[in-house]
Amino acid sequence: IIDPATFDLVQKEIERRRPERHKLHRSSPFTAKVICGDCGGYYGRKVWHSNSKHRKYIWRCNQKYEEKTACSTPNLDEAALKAAFVEAFNRMLGDKEQYIARFEEMLPLLADTSKLERQLAEAQNKHSHLMNNLRLYMEENTRQIQDQEKYNRRFSELDTECKKAEEEIEAIQKEILEQSGRKEQIRRCLDELRECGDILDEFDDDLWNSMIESVTVYADKTLEFLFQDGTRIPIQMPKNKKGIN
């Protein structure tokens, strides 16, 4: 059972991760998902030939020209990215039943947060105990005269212990949140695979948003797609591929 506060956090995270079609005209689905294999930074959307009839959008490492040695990863246009995703996804569809079975195995494991919840309860009890000790120590100081230097030193120690306990609680709550969000991601992936046909003919925003964690671009023009279940599928782009330079 997730406490109400954590449940609310989970719902917010799920909503944040949900593909929002009404926002796609303002923000590309590739934003914060295309990674440079040289520096590890994100690719960004750039405009080429902005004042001519040949105007087009390309994707390039945001750090490409900010270092002494420019990243050697290629620029990509959106058509090339979309085509590479279609190819990677169709490879996954070739083993569709295998991936469906894998997702079905993952769901109950991700749904079980009982161990984390026990850890959270223990951390909360520890924090409550420490806070009570701090309160009693403060009350004792009001009832009888103490060496204030010694009191302040001990108060600081108790306060530090309380803050560490709070940080432990927050870390466990975050882990529960992430696992719950991960479960929702895998559930959506499973739904998409079940509903998808045997082959994907064209790029689909919803499939991209639900299935892809990231895509890493390497200098040899390999695009490695990381799916939500951890599967990595490399796509080697032809050297003379239009849209890759």
Describe the protein's topology.
Layout lengths: L3 H14 L16 E3 L6 E6 L7 E6 L14 E2 H16 L2 H16 L2 H30 L4 H48 L9 H7 E6 L4 E6 L4 E5 L9
Parallel strand pairs: 1-5
Antiparallel strand pairs: 2-3, 3-4, 5-6, 6-7
Helix pairs in contact: 1-5, 3-5, 4-5
Organism: Petralouisia muris
Protein name: Recombinase family protein
Note the main sheet: 4 strands, mixed
The end-to-end distance, rounded to whole angstroms, is 52 Å
- Evaluate the radius of gyration: 25 Å
Low-confidence stretches: 9-14, 16-26
Order of helices and strands: HEEEEHHHHHEEE
- Percent range for helical residues? 40-55%
How much strand content do the residues show?
5-15%
Order of strands in the sheet with the most strands? 1-5-6-7
**Looking at the structure, what is the overall shape?**
elongated
Mean pLDDT across all residues, rounded? 82
Total domain modules: 2
How many beta strands in the DSSP annotation? 7
Instruction: Briefly note the structural class of the backbone.
Output: alpha+beta
Q: What is the count of DSSP helices, taking H or I runs of 4+ residues?
A: 6
Protein name: Recombinase family protein
Descriptive report:
The protein is of the alpha+beta class and 245 residues long. It has two domains: 4-106 and 210-236, no CATH class; 111-185. Helix content is 53%, strand content 14%. It contains six helices and seven strands; from the N terminus they run αββββαααααβββ. The protein has helices at residues 4-17, 78-93, 96-111, 114-143, 148-195, 205-211; strands at 34-36, 43-48, 56-61, 76-77, 212-217, 222-227, 232-236. It has a four-stranded mixed beta sheet with strand order 1-5-6-7. A three-stranded antiparallel beta sheet has the order 2-3-4. Strand 6 (222-227) and strand 7 form a beta hairpin. Helix 1 crosses helix 5, helix 3 (96-111) runs antiparallel to helix 5 and helix 4 (114-143) packs antiparallel against helix 5 (148-195). It is elongated. This is Recombinase family protein.
